[in-house]
Amino acid sequence: MTYNYASRMANLNGTATREIFKLLGNPEIISFAGGNPAIECLPTARVKEIAADITSAPDFARVLQYGLTAGFPELREQLTSYVKSVGIDDAKLENVLVISGGQQGIDLVLKTFIDPGDVILVENPTYLAFLQIANSYEAVCHGVDANSDGLDLNDLEAKIKKYSPKILYTVPTFSNPTGKTYSAANRKAIAELTAKYGVIVIEDDPYSKLRFKGEYVPSMKSMDKAGNVIFISSFSKILSPGNRTGVAMAAPELIRKMEICKQGTDLHTPNLSQMITYEYLKRGYLEPDLEKAVVIYGEKKAAMSKAIAEYMPEEFECTDPDGGLFIWGKFPKGIDVIKTFPEAIERKVAYIQGSVFFAEPEGTENYIRLNYSYANAGQIEEGIKRLGELFKEKLSSI
Amino acid sequence: MTYNYASRMANLNGTATREIFKLLGNPEIISFAGGNPAIECLPTARVKEIAADITSAPDFARVLQYGLTAGFPELREQLTSYVKSVGIDDAKLENVLVISGGQQGIDLVLKTFIDPGDVILVENPTYLAFLQIANSYEAVCHGVDANSDGLDLNDLEAKIKKYSPKILYTVPTFSNPTGKTYSAANRKAIAELTAKYGVIVIEDDPYSKLRFKGEYVPSMKSMDKAGNVIFISSFSKILSPGNRTGVAMAAPELIRKMEICKQGTDLHTPNLSQMITYEYLKRGYLEPDLEKAVVIYGEKKAAMSKAIAEYMPEEFECTDPDGGLFIWGKFPKGIDVIKTFPEAIERKVAYIQGSVFFAEPEGTENYIRLNYSYANAGQIEEGIKRLGELFKEKLSSI
After folding, report:
1. Using DSSP, how many helices (H) and how many strands (E) does chain B show?
2. pLDDT confidence bin for B286, thresholds 50/70/90
3. Which strand (E) or helix (H) includes residue B171?
4. Which of A305-309, B24-28, B105-109, B152-156 has the lowest mean pLDDT?
5. What is d(CA B120, CA B199) in angstroms, rounded to the nearest whole number?
């Protein structure tokens, strides 16, 4: 039988990271490809303790029964406190939706707002899975230029005027893929500009807690006076990616729409996942675990920067992030990291081609994203050494 | 700020059951409204044991880390065996996708196939959440008549010819809402007819294990020669609704498309939920738990049938299911159960209006769905007594 798929399927292929993820069953390959937290940072003992307590509680049957789509009220209450740590002081229960990971939050916003052909502005470059989700809604994405301060405000306003976008998607703190952070002034200006033109902003924040250097910057949502910013955060990079929990925080009307959209996708986030996140926050485990994690990530990032300085071709330029999980690099024109990928795999090292992070990928084959959170220090040095050798060979033959 | 939503939002309101679910925080209300399994059937001790074992295993960190979108390979393997119990003997790993509850399976099929305006055929009446999900894809649903044998095959073929539908949605065993079951001959004829016209069939099977009477009927998927049937089952009604796990089983090409669609919605089903389901199946807990559950559900159904005979107006007609969770009833014309609902809530008893289960709801205000799995025997008698009094009053004033 020949299947007659929906038109959205024409542009939907597995995302590069997810497909590479499948390759990485081979433990010999040193992977800088994913966005996995360090395995040694995952709080196995704490989750064991919490799971034992939850399953021993007299009302455990409640956890096995159906739950509310918006999430357990006690978790939502807890999340109104959690968002205070990013400067959002006035969140109430009706501002908060429990989501099955940050990815679902993005999906629900697009489901709420996007018709085929609607325009979304994204940073140049941006989170690749966002582009994939936008494809699934048949949105048209255009890139906005960035500078050291954040988004280029002139380019942003010009593109808002030109394209009348419905949504601006941002990762303002430790961006995926660049690791860069927007300044407070830049955030305020973005919030004001988008409010003026009636553009919804998705502030995607999986990484801001993972700061090992520099100063805290308040969330864009905390500067939102018009109600056009939707804040999305995830517990995937701290507590557990496999637990699939996150939070969306927005105006009550928007949360209600997203809740209705969530009814049709997964009814509700699994209760045990929710209760684990609730207890983890309530017991105050997040802060001490974060303190340890940022030391580890800072060391890993330093190890990668050092290895890059030592082994990569001197023409290679890259970012120096204060937090998050990624270094973003650029080779001279003539290097094509997409074509080089199979050779890297032969040498047992993996990365992600930078081109997949661009809404308009033409001419971006010389960019690369390197993840430093997953590999250990020895693997980081060895992997970068292998990449350095590979790309020095390539450069010498341009 | 005024929000400019996607056009799909115009027809999306919370489903009736989900919204009523919120009302039922009041424990004084006897609820026949939801589709919750009996709280006494939820295997709390088993899940406690399994969770303790999973969280104590040396490789527990793997459960906290990211997983594959298609699901844990060992769970998928287990599910290829599980579907043998519904007559599907040849399932391989590539035929199986782990889903976050049956609802997500439906959502992924529609995401794969449906463009706005595409037609879906459904049974008259059908699962209300399906209609809601279809709305979210801006599909047009038309009802197919049913008879005691299953779907009316003449009406089905006539409507396939008239509407060129992409999908036929069915709940062939213990249908929600009617509790009826299609015969084996009817299933075979549906599989052949839809294959002939290239129509995809969703065979939604959350209930077939909950048989307390009558003979097992093999799944429609087991009769599928063309590869047009997608089988969806859920562990929500047996193991736990709150755990949100299920299985989709179809041709490898379709499973791959659904997997790509799942990437963008929730990346993967939470690992702990998957592992709990895996261990529950592997340890052989399903069969003995089912044996006990069907006795309980059979008794509850009998209690409701008895109470209906005793207390409901004699003009009330209803089904007599061999399994599942629901009795479907019909009052004489002139009774409007939608208008009567607030009075029922005043008398502390809840039901679902039958009209929400119809693709074309005009003139169906006299239908009602009654769930017998959640309330206990005393509540069933008392609740039906209250409803009987209420509707006798209404009937006397027609």
Report:
1. 13, 15
2. very high
3. none
4. B24-28
5. 9
The tokens for B268 are: 């993967």
CB contact under 8 A, A14 and B244: no
pLDDT band of B391, cuts 50, 70, 90: very high
Mean pLDDT, all residues of chain A: 95
pLDDT digits (tens, 9 = 90+) for A118-136: 999 999 999 999 999 999 9
Residues from chain B that touch A9, judged by Cβ atoms under 8 A, are 112, 257, 260
pTM here is: 0.96
Torsion of CA A34, A37, A39, A40, to 10 degrees: 150
- d(Cα A366, Cα A346) in Å, to the nearest integer? 20
First to last CA, chain A: 48
For B205-237, b where at least 16 C-beta lie within 10 A, e where not — what string?
A: bbbbbbbbeeeebebbbbbbeeebbbbbbbbbb
Q: Crossing angle, helix A128-136 and helix B252-266, to 10 degrees?
A: 120
* B277 near A CB under 8 A: no
SS (H, E, C) chain A: CCCCCCHHHHHCCCCHHHHHHHHCCCCCCEECCCCCCCHHHCCHHHHHHHHHHHHHCCCHHHHHCCCCCCCCHHHHHHHHHHHHHHCCCCCCHHHEEEECCHHHHHHHHHHHHCCCCCEEEEECCCCHHHHHHHHHCCCEEEEECEECCEECHHHHHHHHHHHCCCEEEECCCCCCCCCCCCCHHHHHHHHHHHHHHCCEEEEEECCCCCECCCCCCCCCHHHCCCCCEEEEEECCCCCCCCCCCEEEECCHHHHHHHHHHHHHHHCCCCHHHHHHHHHHHHCCCHHHHHHHHHHHHHHHHHHHHHHHHHHCCCCCEECCCCECCEEEEECCCCCCHHHHHHHHHHCCEECEEHHHHCCCCCCCCCEEEEECCCCCHHHHHHHHHHHHHHHHHHHHCC
Specify the residue for token string 């433990």.
A27
Side chain identity at residue B326, one-letter code = F
For CA atoms B118, B120, B121, B126, give the dihedral sign.
negative
- CB of A166 within 8 Å of a chain B CB? The answer is yes
From the list B200, B228, B266, which residue is nearest A100 (CB)?
B266
Cβ separation B276–A276 shorter than 8 A? no
- Asked if A23 is an interface residue toward chain B (Cβ–Cβ < 8 A), one would say no
- In chain A, the percentage of residues whose pLDDT exceeds 90 is 94
Q: Are A128 and A35 in contact (CB under 8 A)?
A: no
Cβ within 8 Å, pair B44-A36: no
As a whole number of angstroms, the distance between CA B99 and CA B105 comes to 6
- In this prediction, residues A205-233 reach a mean pLDDT of 97
CB contact under 8 A, B240 and A64: yes
Map residue B101 onto helix, strand or coil.
coil
- At B292-308, the pLDDT tens digits run 999 999 999 999 999 99
Q: Which among A68, A104, A128, A260 is the top mutation candidate for probing chain B, defined by the most B β-carbons within 10 Å of its own β-carbon?
A: A260
Smallest Cα distance from B118 to chain A, Å = 9
Distance CA A39, CA A41 (A): 5
